[in-house]
Amino acid sequence: MRLRSVNVGRQESIDHGNRTFVTGICKRPSDGSVHIGYDLVAGDTICNTEHHGGKDQVAYAYSTEDYDWWSAELDTELQPGAFGDNLTIDGLPTDLYVGDRLLIGDVLLEATSPRIPCSTLAARMQDSGFGVQFRKAERPGIYFRVLNEGEVSAGDGVTLIENPVPVVSILELFRLSYDLSPDPADLERYLEAPLADRFRAKLEQKLAAAGSSAA
């Protein structure tokens, strides 16, 4: 694997329908090295801190190959950062296990959760139905926490370090987000993985709801 680009975005406004979105989703490749810290990617902007950013979702990565797929699907050339990804990576698998790690120079990242499409992504694509299309494509990209900070640059090699005790994959979590009747045993097992806090809270809510239904 190789880092195709490091992308950051400033606060911008996007008009879509009758709404205006203030967002940092419009990310563009940076020149030179970029510092990836324990709580942010230098030069990047997170506007909606309720749903984005934080220590468990510092960096969002998307694969070049999935971008190629989308470019063909949409019949338009998508550039790195179009989906709000900080890291566009050649050869990044669509699916990893939570707890799998990427080593880029001194930077060590740990996979924590998939990206769940929202209205801001639909506004970015100027397509109200894009969230459904993104869901069906099952190419969500991956959020990472930072275990060791440092500098990264386009062209850096990327090494995958697999979780020796895999519990749940990114795509399993992505599908679970839309599952209205998840198996409580699966939820309990998934909670053993090093999930992002936001995703852990969602699973705990689903488990509690499943328990209430059973009662």
Structural class by sheet pairing and helices: alpha+beta
Number of strand segments: 12
Please report which band the strand proportion falls in: under 5%, 5-15%, 15-25%, 25-35%, 35-45% or over 45%. 25-35%
Side-by-side strand order of the widest sheet: 4-1-7-6-10-9-8-12
Molecular shape: globular
Query: Which regions contain 5 or more consecutive residues with pLDDT less than 50?
Result: none
Largest sheet: 8 strands, mixed
How big is the Rg?
Answer: 17 Å
Care to describe what's here?
By secondary structure, this protein is of the alpha+beta class. The protein has 6 helices and 12 strands. The strands form 3 sheets. It has an 8-stranded mixed β-sheet. A two-stranded antiparallel ribbon has the order 2-3. Strands 5-11 form a two-stranded antiparallel sheet. Strand 2 and strand 3 form a beta hairpin. Helix 5 runs antiparallel to helix 6. The radius of gyration is 17 Å and the shape is globular. It starts with a strand and ends with a helix.
